[in-house]
Amino acid sequence: MKSFFDRFENFFEGFIFWSRWVQAPMYGGLIIGAFLYMAKFFQELAHMYHQVVGGDIESKVMLTLLSLVDISMVMNLVVMVTIGGYSIFTSKIDVDMHDDKPLWLEGLDAGMLKIKLATSLASISGVQLLKTFVNYREAAEKAGSEGIIIEIVIHMVFIFSALLLGYTEKIIHSYPHGLTGHGHVDEEEEHKEDEHKEEV
Prior knowledge:
It is a multi-pass membrane protein. It comes from Reichenbachiella faecimaris. Keywords: Cell membrane, Membrane, Transmembrane, Transmembrane helix. The protein is mostly helical. It has one domain. It is built from 6 helices and no strands. The radius of gyration is 25 Å and the shape is elongated. Residues 180-189 have low confidence and may be disordered.
């Protein structure tokens, strides 16, 4: 018969395991936010239409187009966080049999998700930097040369972070069982077992 402490331990561990569902409303909120942000995309698209019809200069049309690219990349980031975060930290999503399963979900784990998020942030900051380059004069008047330098530094930090995360994951996955240090021993034991089976 289980003691009171054993029952309490089982209850508390079950409660901790259930706590992962606290994240679910947040992911739902991200989906709602994505739909609201989609309205901003169509606003920019309508603005671009009026620019083209009105005969605005190419640089202004290009800035609006880059804004559309920026919004779509932010949406990609939201989708990545929502689906990846839910499937890794909350509950498994059974999409293996779906024909339209996105390629980025293949072999996704917490480490790969961090790398994808870091590269997405670097790409978004790169688009922002490109917008500054296209509209350099106005950007220099508003933020000054120091503001542009800060944008470049932030972009480089995102790139360095993505590279560092990728290198860290490469080191971790170079060990068969992570960083436990027992991977080579297990491989030798498996090799000996295979040889023994062949002899039998």
